[in-house]
Amino acid sequence: METLERAVVWRSLLAGGMEYFELRKHGDCHVLRGKVVSVLEPAQPLFVSYEVVCDSQWHTREARILQVNGGEQHELNIEVHGTGWKVNGKMMPELENCLDIDLSISPSTNTLPLRRLNLQRGQSQRVIAAWVRFPSLEISPLEQAYKRLDQTRYWYTSATGFEAEIRVDAASVVFDYPGVWTRVAQGSSQ
Fold it and tell me: Tell me: the pLDDT tens digits for 31-87?
């Protein structure tokens, strides 16, 4: 049986799109589900539906991604066994050190390392995520770091040079990603 922890609607401040997201608990697992409607340049519609399943320690165990872009449909099916990542049935040894998946099209996957790391104020930690870029659906390892500033704020940096302050709620779900995403609605079972 699944229980709802959070339901959120985010608005993209970069692409003008929206996302409906749910964080659910299913037995010992955590499930992230989202549907993103966005616009690529030049005025190209993009739809992404995803589900990420994590174990009780917030390690990614599987992900299913469906993307519709310009009428073309593409799917990624990801399985993680131990440290081995398999994408559409093919082993990806370059992802071996990744614990998290990071979907570039959504702020939802920031929740994974934040919940797992449980950082205290002033603490920081580096992680390596399997970074999925959209609309190319390319996957590669990406080094990232999170530093907890206070109860609701983290400083995020990535090896791409991107930096931002992320504000989260009590469930470590993003409510403000300045200049990138903002939450416009939220609900929970609590």
Answer: 999 999 998 877 789 999 999 999 999 999 999 999 999 889 999 999 999 889 999
Kindly report the pTM of this predicted structure: 0.94
Q: Which residue has the tokens 């403000």?
A: 176
- Which residue, among 95, 89, 102, 105, has the nearest Cα to 40 in the 3D structure? 105
- At 112, the amino acid letter reads L
Give the pair of three-digit tokens for residue 146: 């999170």
Mind giving me the DSSP string for 121-171? TT-EEEEEEEEEPTTT--EEEEEEEEEE-SSSEEEEEETTS-EEEEEE-TT
Calculate ∠ Cα 73-74-76, nearest 5°.
Answer: 150
C-alpha 139, offset from chain centre: 13
HSE, CB side, 13 Å, CA atoms: give it for residue 63: 29
The mean per-residue pLDDT over the stretch 158-171 comes to 94
The candidate with the shortest Cα–Cα distance to 67, out of 112, 133, 148, is: 133
| 47, HSE (Cβ side, Cα atoms, 13 Å) | 7
CA 51, 14, 16, 75 dihedral sign is: negative
- Report d(CA 167, CA 173) in Å as an integer: 8
Angle at 64 between CA 63 and CA 70, to 5 degrees: 135
